[in-house]
Design a protein that fits this description.
single chain; 2 domains; 7-stranded mixed β-sheet; alpha/beta; UDP N-Acetylglucosamine Acyltransferase, domain 1
Length: about 190
């Protein structure tokens, strides 16, 4: 009975989301006004209803995306982001241009920034008038990212990233890394 209710509620949610989905599709890939508007709107709907709205909206709008759950206050900021099957994203996270592998778990308050060189800067400081440079960050399959982490580089599959870590360099697969900047603490079989 519980599964039937989930299917019915999910279908009902898709019907309600369809107009926002249609507007996002009609604006194309060059612009993201509607996408950003609805991302922010669905991020603030509380409780299980909000969880369903966020999940269904992103699964419909984002290509190759199959989110398992996405909690309150979380925003996906880039329309080209791809999220694999069974991925869970905690509350109050900001997800930039990235690709998250199947089975990954993203903690609360995690920020995945679109690379470490989004704004061009020189010895005179940051020039915000220049176009942003977005680099896709890849989070591997079954990677776990702890609460309040900031991710600016790729993370390999089966990695554990400690809470509060700042990842500025690529992390190889199958390791535990933590700190600011994140450093490898344990490798492979040592993680238990």
């Amino acid at each position: 009975m519980k599964e039937v209710l989930k299917i019915v509620f999910s279908s009902f949610t898709k019907v309600l989301i369809f107009p926002s989905y249609l507007l996002c599709v009609l604006e194309g890939n060059k612009k993201s006004y509607f996408f950003h508007t609805f991302s922010q709107f669905y991020a603030i709907i509380p409780g299980i209803v909000g969880d369903y709205f966020r999940k269904e909206f992103y699964n419909m709008v984002l290509e190759d995306t199959y989110i398992n759950y996405i909690l309150f206050g979380t925003i996906i900021a880039n329309k080209n982001t791809k999220i694999g099957r069974g991925v869970g994203i905690g509350g109050y996270s900001i997800i930039g241009y990235c690709e998250i592998g199947d089975g990954a778990a993203i903690g609360n308050g995690v920020h995945i920034i679109s690379g470490k060189k989004i704004h061009d800067f020189d010895s005179h400081g940051v020039d915000l008038t220049k176009k942003m440079v977005l680099n896709k960050v890849i989070v591997g399959e079954k990677a776990w990212i702890g609460n309040q982490s900031v991710i600016m580089a790729n993370i390999g599959r089966n990695c554990l990233i400690g809470a509060g870590s700042v990842v500025t360099k690529d992390i190889e697969e199958g390791v535990l890394a933590a700190g600011n900047p994140a450093k490898v603490i344990k490798k492979g079989d040592q993680i238990k």
